[in-house]
Specification:
1 helix; two-stranded antiparallel sheet; 144 residues; single chain; mainly beta
Length: 144
């Protein structure tokens, strides 16, 4: 049995589109007691991936949604952002944080963060991994 192998297409997308360096981090675990303050504080996040990727908005990645007869029509998710990573990258979990640590073309990406709204897509036939993102709104005084 021959399966459709899209690795060549993934390599092409990585070379042409994934010029940024992306960092995906995951919460480090349950809160830890700070003996100096007596407060519970979140541990530092664990970085699960740092490597090539691209953050795209809806204007850069139009999609086609085909309704199925008898089922409600799913509209696009509420967020216009998608993360592209190579299939060799770990699958992001819901609530992981995405940060661009090196922007190849748009310096406005630096310092912005996104929350993964669902686990990264996985499929039998896949060229690149796609993860839906929601941009975080920075609070006053928070680091970029």
């Amino acid at each position: 049995m021959n399966l459709l192998d899209l690795r060549f297409l993934g390599d092409l997308v990585e070379d042409l589109v994934m010029g940024d360096t992306i960092q995906i981090s995951r919460p480090g675990g349950p809160p830890v007691l700070n003996p100096d303050t007596g407060e519970l504080e979140p541990p530092p996040p664990r970085i699960i991936y740092e490597g090539p990727g691209a953050v795209l908005d809806s204007t850069a990645t139009p999609g086609i949604t085909v309704p199925v007869a008898g089922q409600s029509y799913p509209d696009d998710p509420k967020t216009p952002y998608r993360l592209l990573t190579p299939t060799a990258a770990p699958v992001a979990d819901r609530d992981d944080t995405v940060r661009v640590v090196r922007a190849a073309q748009d310096p406005a990406l630096l310092g912005r963060t996104w929350r993964c709204t669902q686990p990264g897509l996985a499929a039998t036939v896949i060229a690149v991994r796609v993860t839906w993102l929601d941009e975080n709104t920075p609070t006053a005084g928070s680091p970029p």
